[in-house]
Amino acid sequence: MTIKVTNLSKIYGSQKALDSISFEAHKGEILGFLGPNGAGKSTTMKILTGYIPATSGQAFINGIEINENSIAIRKEVGYLPELNPLYTDMYVKEFLLFIANSYGITEGANQAAEEMISKTGLSLERKKKISQLSKGYKQRVGLAAAMIHNPSVLILDEPTSGLDPNQVSEIRNLIKEIGKNKTVILSSHIMQEVEAMCDRVIIINRGKIVADDKIEKLQQSFSKEYLISVQFKNSPTIESIKAIDKSIKVLPTKEGFTITAKEDIRENIAQKAAENNWLILSMNLEESSLEQVFQSLTK
Ligand code: ADP
Ligand code: MG
User: Among 14-28, 127-141, 283-297, which stretch is predicted with the lowest mean pLDDT?
Assistant: First the structure.
């Protein structure tokens, strides 16, 4: 495997941002880190790229331990940070040459920059200043910079956030193409993003891994649950709905509630509603989607 993480923890002051996470990633895999804001995705990525040390635990990339080799590790890893910091006064090619030089590439710098420009579709923008580019094209420059030293691992922190739908799909395609020959870890707080791009997903919540599986497997293992969405006119409390059955989960939604149960308990809900004079406006049995899996694991 190219990445191996064991019992990695990070404490900021008194806050435990990462709580003993362990996982592996393999060559040619696009792995998604999915989790709500503050889950610990960026923290994990910063540790994997050698930018911050872990508090405890170990992480290896291509057999190199990261905490002890935080400089050496940067040769192995390409990193697109969350806010994609670019020198916006520089021209595209100039910036890529600058980054190549910062990796110690001198003779091959021009060729490396040209290759990245063509690979990321920047040929027509190569002579523009970065500040003149659209957000989608700025993101391409960030990807080109992350890959210029030909690392075997790419760590992309929320690579499509803030892009419009067309730009999102272009960047997704680009990452999928790039991912064929590398190990890619990307983070997102959006389920559909991970569903569209990744082979495997690790769901992180409050510093812990709550799921780690192939996307289809996650969908299957949760498909045995029944999801009932119900809308009431005079909304009862979550607690009073939970009283229907101890084993059910109740989540508030925009319109009402989603109830997760081991059986189809629509009849029980209707009965309880009648007893309590809750007026049901609608009630539907829904298919379990990954979105709901994610919600139930991270609430
Ligand atoms: P995510 O990327 O999943 O949104 P982060 O890894 O950025 O989450 O943050 C995880 C937790 O650690 C959050 O609660 C965040 O506030 C906290 N945190 C992140 N960076 C720092 C820091 N430099 N100092 C203190 N707390 C931090
Ligand atoms: Mg983050």
Answer: 283-297
Residue 233 and residue 215 share a domain: no
CA–CA separation, 10 and 17 (whole Å): 6
Helices 92-102 + 135-147 axis angle, to 10: 30
Q: Which domain holds residue 289?
A: 222-294
Average pLDDT of the residues in 120-135:
93
Minimum mean pLDDT among 10-19, 96-105, 140-149, 217-226: which range?
A: 217-226
**Beta carbon of 35 within 6 Å of any ligand 1 atom:** yes
Among all bound ligands, the one having the nearest atom to the CA of 203 is 1
Output the six-digit token pair for 228. Answer: 């009932």
Is residue 59, in this structure, part of any structural domain at all? yes
- Tell me which residue has tokens 């809308």: 231
Mutate to test the pocket of ligand 1, among 8, 11, 12 (most ligand atoms within 8 A of CB): 12
> Taking the model in full, what pTM does it have?
0.80
CATH number at residue 10: 3.40.50.300
Does residue 163 sit within a domain?
A: yes
Can you give the pLDDT at residue 231? 95
Q: What is the pLDDT of residues 15-44, one digit of tens each?
A: 999 999 999 999 989 999 999 999 999 999
Q: In the chain, what is the straight-line distance between the N-terminal and C-terminal CA atoms, in Å?
A: 32
Whole-number Å distance, alpha carbon 43 to ligand 1 midpoint, is: 6
**Is 284 in contact with 228 (CB distance < 8 Å)?**
yes
Q: Residue 45: CB within 6 Å of ligand 1?
A: no
15/127 same-domain check:
yes
Q: Which of 21, 43, 193 to mutate to test the pocket of ligand 1 (most atoms within 8 A of CB)?
A: 43
